[in-house]
């Protein structure tokens, strides 16, 4: 189980540990966090300094089994604002 002591061990916040874990999933995997504030940008860059061993990655992965991570990508109330419901004109209609 991941506790606050776990984050202290890595010297980062829970969000930073999540980004660091994603960064260590392979060279073809890149997290794309969004932000509108410089402070948050600095926080999102911080995980690049977090080094995780194979054992660390196993510990983190075991704490959150993939089968327990389910649900929509975004809040259900915003689904009607999604690109899925846009009315984009066909290509060539300028």
Automatic annotation (TrEMBL):
Superkingdom: Eukaryota
Single GO cellular component term: cytoplasm
UniProt keyword annotations, A-Z: NADP, Oxidoreductase
Keyword Oxidoreductase: yes
MF annotations from Gene Ontology: oxidoreductase activity
Domain NADP-dependent oxidoreductase: 8-63
KW Oxidoreductase (keyword) present: yes
InterPro entries the UniProt entry points to: Aldo-Keto_reductase, NAD(P)_OxRdtase_dom_sf, NADP_OxRdtase_dom
Family annotation (PANTHER family): AFLATOXIN B1 ALDEHYDE REDUCTASE, OS01G0618100 PROTEIN
Name of protein: NADP-dependent oxidoreductase domain-containing protein
Organism: Stephania japonica
């Amino acid at each position: 189980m991941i506790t606050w002591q776990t984050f202290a061990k890595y010297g980062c916040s829970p969000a930073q540990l999540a980004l660091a874990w994603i960064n260590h999933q392979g060279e073809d995997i890149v997290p794309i966090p969004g932000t509108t504030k410089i402070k948050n940008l600095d926080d999102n860059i911080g995980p690049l300094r977090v080094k995780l061993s194979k054992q660390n990655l196993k510990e983190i992965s075991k704490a959150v089994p993939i089968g327990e991570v389910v649900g929509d990508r975004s809040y259900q109330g915003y689904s009607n604002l999604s690109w899925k419901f846009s009315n984009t004109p066909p290509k060539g209609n300028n």
